[in-house]
Amino acid sequence: MLLKSSKINEFRLWGLLLTMGGMLVMIIGLAGVVFDWGTIGRVIAGIFLIIGLISMLGSMAIYFWAGMMSTSAVALDCPECGKRTKMIGKTDRCMFCKTILTVDPALASEQADTEVIVNEPDTKEAAQDTARN
Questions:
Q1: Is the CB of residue 59 less than 8 Å from the CB of residue 19?
Q2: How many angstroms separate the CA atoms of 107 and 87, rounded?
Q3: Quick one: CA dihedral 16, 19, 21, 27, positive or negative?
Q4: What's the alpha-carbon Rg for the chain, to the nearest Å?
Q5: pLDDT digit string (tens) for 15-33?
Q6: What is the pLDDT of residues 31-89, one digit of tens each?
Q7: Which of 3, 47, 51, 128 is deepest in the core (most CB within 10 A)?
Q8: Given CA atoms 8, 13, 14, 20 in this order, what sign does their dihedral have?
Q9: How far apart are CA 100 and CA 98, in angstroms?
Q10: What's the CA dihedral at 75, 14, 17, 61 to 10 degrees?
């Protein structure tokens, strides 16, 4: 459970890894120019800079995608830690304490024996429905 995290945090992690990897590849590529390897050094630097640029653009796309998903994610309070967390899909993990959360009653009954499950979407309609009943 130590390495598990929420889906939004997973996307952000991959974006960060692509950013750092792209920067590392660009720095390694500059060795061809810094150590004066001649024409082949410039070619190596150019190739590595292009690979790093592609990695950085991929990182930008992943961060944009994670941001767009975050705006439409269901926000709810975690029953374990009490903090506000965002959820993508039917099941996800709390961003803070890594508890498995779900808004699907069918999945809640299957996993209720092993993990703490929440079945409370944060919508005004759900609150109004429970108030009427």
A1: yes
A2: 15
A3: negative
A4: 22
A5: 999 999 999 999 999 988 8
A6: 888 888 888 999 999 999 999 999 999 999 999 999 898 888 888 898 888 899 888 88
A7: 51
A8: positive
A9: 6
A10: -90
The CA distance from 1 to 10, in Å, is 14
**Contact predicate 61/21, CB 8 Å:** no
Integer angstrom CA distances of residue 33 from 12, 41, 55, 63: 33, 6, 21, 31
- Cα 31 from Cα 97, distance rounded (Å): 43
Q: And the tokens for 41?
A: 């050094």
Q: 3-class secondary structure for 84-126?
A: EEEECCCEEECCCCCCEEECCHHHHHHHCCCCCCCCCCCCHHH
63 has which bridge partners? none
Query: Angle 125-83-80 (CA atoms, 0-180°, nearest 5)?
Result: 95
Tokens coding 123: 């919508």
Which tokens hold the place of 40? Answer: 């082949």
Residue type at 102 in one-letter notation: T
Q: By three-state DSSP, how is residue 74 classified?
A: strand
